Structure formats: structure tokens, C-alpha cells
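Appendix B, Record 12. Input sequence as logged:
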Amino acid sequence: MNIQVQFPPSLWADTAPPRAVNPAAKGKIETDVAIIGAGFTGLSAAIEAARRGHTVAVFEGKAVGWGASGRNNGQVIPVLTSAEPDVWVQRYGETGRRVVELIGNSASILFDLVREFDMQAEAEQTGWFQPAHSPGRMILSQRRVEAWQRYGFPAELRTAQEAAEMLGTEFWHGGMFNPTGGHINPLALARGMAKAAEELGVTIHENSPVRSFERQGAGWALRTADATINARAMILATNAYTGELVPQLAPRLAKSLIPVLSWQMATEPLGDNLRKTILPGRQAVSDTRGDLRFFRYDARNRLITGGAVIGPHDVANRVRRKAARSLAEAFPALGTPEMTHVWSGYIGMNWDRFPRVHQLGPDGWAWMACNGRGVAFGTAMGRELARAVTGTDPRELALPVTEPKPFPVQGLLRRVAPTYLAWLKRNDQIEPKL
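Logged structural output:
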């Protein structure tokens, strides 16, 4: 049977290796581990649980990689947005230290997985660079480098001259470089992870939104439109899309974050001369602005970038023009590029930009709020959650458990969230007090 799922238009939907969509779940299903969501976290968890000898069934509301995992920029970043390593330890002690180790190793975990299963994901482990957009941020970059080095990770401080050589422009002031990062085609990675999971015996049911789950006896009972599932353990891996397909699935979790629309886009492929002078080492780049400037190449030498604008009117065209101007400002030789693809998807944000881990019951887990850094961390966290439900004591893992704290006016906050950009842009002009 040829099953169709309408994928949101994007460069990744046009270029990822094709994958046939699996049939929806039907009837009674028994499994050791049930996973809700076939993005990076869910698929990484499925691979790890299957490796450890457990039967695994994944239930995806649309298709593998349909949500944030298949729509993001594809940067593999081994740090989080503002959750600095020392603060993790201050907040969670030894568990926080394990989280720091998980974050610092997250990019390598992803790239090692790609290499192990020979995933056709356009993976390039060329490093990740965070250039400082002002002298004050350069001092913050130095502090971040020192913090990550204290925990044994290969962060490096690059001078303004070194940054200019790396980027092909003098637009930034230096910054922090981590050689373990890089970039991938995210939808291709999701499909590669699904293939690897299925080779390990995992069953993936698509077009199967889970409508409810509850603890029953010594296990978990899940329901879709046409199936009832009994599982010893369960992982909820839906993050920013937790309340999108089935609002009643986990409302407290869904309301504990703010889904924010993130816009991505791609230029025409650059010619050889420009390619050799602009970002010659093909690193992934995300600078220190709150109103972030970020870019990297894909396998066809397109620059993949993005941005945000305030207000709902004509957003796609406005963000397209803004991102093109930003590239032209940083790289005058490029001119103002034309964007051939513009697309968007939700990221899960919260007030302090710390990811949250929740225990839903015995052998029932979820994590929320990637805050724009879900590619590497989501993959690493999936492995960690799988270990928690397959015999490892959760107290030995990087699982800083908290209770969900729903936003009391989440609907209103979702509507006003784009105006947060105005505050970020203002803050970008202010040198931090050091």
C-alpha cells in the first residue's frame, strides 16, 4: 500500500533520500518500550533500547521527521543556548555534571551514530563556531571557552583575525569554536535513524497519533484511533509538537513550553570562487546575538540561514528579505542573495532556556524545551531516556527530573512571543556588565 503524508515544503523535503511511509497502527500491540514521536529523540531512544535487547514500537502522528527534527537548520551544536555548564552543576549537583558531559559529548554521539550505520545524512563534522558580535561578547566567549575546558571539552577561543580567516569576513570579533560540531541534512538524518532502528527490529507506525496514555497495572496503556498498545515502558518524545496534533495528549507538558515558529531558508548554490572565500572550512555558524545570525552550507553549496521578524503580516517574505540583507552585510562579495526555499517549524522555548526532564511514572519519561538546540542534545537525550527504561538506574544518568510547570496563560504567550524579538534586538546593542 502506498501511504501518503503531505510533508511541509522545505529544502530538506526536496533533497533527503526518499522513504516509504509505514502503515498506521491497528489492533492490539504488545511491546517492551512504546515511544511517542519519530523525531531525533524518539528514534535515538528506539535504537538504544533495541540494542539493549528490548522490543520497541514507535508511534508517529504524521511521518518520520515531519516535525522539528525534519525542518531545522541542521546545525549540530554541542552547547545549549544559555544553560552554562557551571549553572547545571550548581542547580543539580552530580546529575548536573552528568548533563554537562552529555551536552559536551552530544555532537560526537550524533556523528558517531551516523558513521556506525552509514546514514546518508550529508553529515559534515567540520566544527561549530559562535562568533562574537561585539567586544563585550568576546569576553563572554572567553568565559564560555574556559568553562567548557574545565569540564574537559575542546572549546577554543579564536581571535578576530582567526575568525576572519575562518569566515571570510571581518564582520565579527572572534569567538568560541568547538571542533566536534558540524551540520547535517536533518530530514535525511531522521530517515537514516528510522532505517537503522528498523534494521534493529524496531516497528515504526506512522499516521498514528497517540490519543491517550495512562499507567495501568505494571505497565502503560496507549491508544491511537485504531490500536491499543500495552507497554512496560513509555517515552514521550514530542517536545514542541506535544499539543499540536492531539491537544489533550499531555496538556500539562504541552503548556510548560512556548512553541515558537522558527524560519529557515536556502540560497542558490554558490559558485566555486565565492565558496572558497566565504566560510572555506564549511563550519556551522551561530553568533552571539539574541536576534541570531546563523548559516552553514548544505551538500550542494547552498548557504542555509534563517531569521525572525516581529508581527504576523507577510512573515515569509519579510524574514526572507531580512536574512538576505544580513548575509549581504556580513559578506559584501555575496551581494543580496536570492532564497530558493523558505520554510518554518516550531521550536520549544521556556523562560530560562533550560531543558526539562519529567518522569511520568514508573518507566515513563519525557523531556521538553530544546530552546533551538535540539539536534545534538535531542539525539543524546533519546539515548539517555532509553537507558532509563531498559535497566539503568536513572540516578546514574543525566536526567535532572523536575515537575512540569505549565504557563498559566500559555495561549496568550504564544501570540505575543514574536515580540520578544524586539527585546533581544535591543539587548544586542548593549554591552554586558562584566
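The chain has a mean pLDDT of 95.
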